[in-house]
């Protein structure tokens, strides 16, 4: 009799536990928040290149992908675009639920997404469409922006290009005037660059000056019609 009563009690407790678990099959994972409220980077296309700074009113949280129906938070965003000595003010918002950045000003309209500490996307402006990339900055000087040019030495010496690099610690990101995203690393003063979609293939290398204000190097890109080589240089903004 007592054995049966204890067995029934255990079965009831087990059923209640299982039932409570089924109420939420997906465990709640608390969102994490990035410490940075400032993002510094570059924007550009074939006609222009500049420095982009975005300031979030509060640090944007990154919600775990498994969470469904997260509560949206709208964060106000201000910033600036500096092109050719001219500063343009930007205002907009970041939606934490849709991971959507929308800012505009002076004829420029930016749309982007936040991936870890990198903010990137596209824009439209008075000088055409382009791309942008920015890195989180937690201290003054923690993110450095370089704008540069390239000169093809083979096979067509008349070709020139424009690119932008954002350096944070030993890592770099950037974009070319054709909207191609690049990444890379810095070891000491040596810099290695690759296309974002092919991280194992180095396309350029260079050396940072002793004072960190400039970078110079060479590039070699394999294409279906042959290898394109050239030189490049960039200066700190």
Model description:
The protein has 237 residues and is mainly beta. The chain has two domains: 108 residues, Beta Barrel (Lipocalin), CATH 2.40.128; 99 residues, Porin, CATH 2.40.160. It contains one helix and 18 strands. The strands form three sheets. An eight-stranded antiparallel beta barrel has the order 2-3-5-6-7-8-9-10. An eight-stranded antiparallel barrel has the order 11-12-13-14-15-16-17-18. It has a two-stranded antiparallel ribbon with strand order 1-4. Strand 5 and strand 6 form a beta hairpin. The protein is globular, with a radius of gyration of 24 Å. The N and C termini lie far apart (84 Å). The relative contact order is 0.13. The N terminus is likely disordered.
Which characteristics define this entry?
237 residues; 8-stranded antiparallel barrel; 18 strands; globular; Porin; mainly beta; 1 helix
